[in-house]
Structures are given as structure tokens and as C-alpha cells.
Amino acid sequence: MIDSRAEGSAAQASLTCRDVVQVLRDVVLGRLEMTRAGERSWDEVNAGLFLVHVGNWTLAIYNDAEEIDYCEWCLDTSGRRWSLDSLSPSGGDPIQLLSTWEHAVLQQILRTL
Q: Is it the case that residue 46 has pLDDT exceeding 50?
């Protein structure tokens, strides 16, 4: 017999791509503040993962020659996690789901961190 409470808690233990997109949109719209999580700036990373904090979230965004490439993973302080390797058919990379305008604004925000 399967315990439905266990299934529910397992479902709550992970974030969805949609959750991550919403956080990124809130940053773009100025509802949430994004701060750099490491010592190096966006320009200094140049090619690699750039960690940022947004509220109680930490995101790893891949910087490819100073351009946003993709979001590798996202973790909140309660332990819920989304990662690129956990993609579902209905998911995708949160960066790719942003509009052209949202992508451009996010790019500018990252360059100022």
C-alpha cells in the first residue's frame, strides 16, 4: 500500500521549472532583488556557473562569454531543488522560457552584479 502523504511530501520536495521562471520574472520586474553569491562579478566569470541569491533562493546561471546560456540549478532554503538534469517533458530551461525583453533585462541585471 502506498502512503499518499509520502507521495505528497516527495512532490513538495522539488521545484518546477515554472517556479524558477517566476522567480526570474519577479527579479526582472523589480519585485525581488538579485545579489551575487560569490566574489567574482558576471564579467569575471566569463565562462562558467555564476551563483546568485534571490530572497531565499540560490540559482546557478551559466555565463557563456558574458551571455546567459542556461540555468543549471536552483535551491531554496527549505531544501527544495530544481536542476537542469531533472527536466520533465513539460519543463525546460527557465532561461529559455523568458521573453526576449525579460532575457535582455536579466542580462543587464547580471552584468551589474
A: yes
